[in-house]
Amino acid sequence: MDNIRVLIVDDSSVMRKIVERSLRQAGLSISQVLEAGNGAEALGTCKDTKVDLILCDINMPVMDGLEFVKSLAGVENNKGTPVVMITTEGSEGHVVQALAAGARGYIRKPFTPDQVKEHVLPVLAGKP
Amino acid sequence: MSANPTLAPSEGHEGWSTILQQAAQEVFQLMLSSTLTVPPGTVEDKDLDIVSMVGLAGQLCGIISIRSSLKSAGRMASAMLGAEIADSGPEMWDAVGEICNMVAGNFKNKVPGLGDGCMLSVPTVISGENYRLHSMADAGVIHAVLLFQEDPVVLTLEIHS
To answer: Average pLDDT of A42-67?
Structure first.
């Protein structure tokens, strides 16, 4: 998939930059990167703009990542847009919760660009 | 800045100091492309004027903190972002807070049973000189001192009962 529009959701602006850098290092052709500092901001962006991929933290103020993923199902513009969680919460329980909420992938922090590639490319290709 | 001197060494948490050390070393390796080394001898931990902290709640209650000099924190932030940043400012505070967050997350994911049973707070960063941190921890403290580019980085886990 070329020239994708990506939404990165994390309350840390530094982490948003690192995630963007990792996506580019993974070889993704990105036309636009949108950013949000929490789930509520991200929902607002998703109502206005169709994106191709969402990378989302879990622990955030205002609205956390799991709540955001659940709420995204009700956003017409982005129904079915793949969400990959990218978080320090790396336990099996959190992974199960995230996938049950509707996330399509899960990356644990700390991560390498290779791990980002490994988790994101299959999701973009529509593989489970 | 100095830590609470009344805290006793932690008991019943054998190996946690090593796990904390490993958790931090992995974060520095993967996210900063840098190594944290074990000092050959005793390291003087003065002039550590920035501390980032993440609270733990649930099966383990306490605080994980990372202390370093401002200069060292600036280098950490620059290494993480892959670009020079101002020595002190929001971007540096954000970076050191995230480093602490990842160390705390990595630590709890390495301790059996803690991954699902322990929540992390958002990070807090304090910088400046001449203040003391008074923790309410009453179940011990775990320390690990490592070197980042030859400057000390002090990792502490203060445990609440």
So the answer is: 95
Is the CB of B109 less than 8 angstroms away from the CB of A91?
yes
Query: What residues does each domain of chain A span?
Result: 4-124
Chain B residue with CA closest to A95: the answer is B116
Q: In the numeric block, which tokens belong to residue B105?
A: 């997350």
- List, in sequence order, every residue forming a beta bridge with B52; answer none if it has no partner: B66, B125
Helices (H) and strands (E) in chain B, counts: 4, 7
What integer is the mean pLDDT of A71-94? Answer: 90
* Cβ contact, residue pair B98, A11, below 8 Å: no
pLDDT in tens, B77-115: 999 998 888 667 899 999 999 999 999 999 999 988 888
Q: The domain B16-39+47-160 is classified under which CATH number: 1.10.8.1310, 3.40.1550.10, 2.40.110.10, 3.30.360.10?
A: 3.40.1550.10
Domain chopping of chain B, boundaries: 16-39+47-160
Tell me the average pLDDT of chain B: 87
Prediction ipTM score = 0.87
CB burial class (10 A; 0-12, 13-18, 19+) of residue B86? exposed
Mutation pick from A12, A14, A94, A109 vs chain B, by most beta carbons of B within 10 Å, is: A14
Q: pTM for this one?
A: 0.89
Structure tokens at B96: 């050191």
Q: How far is B156 from chain A (nearest CA, A)?
A: 19
- Check if A96 contacts B (Cβ < 8 Å): no
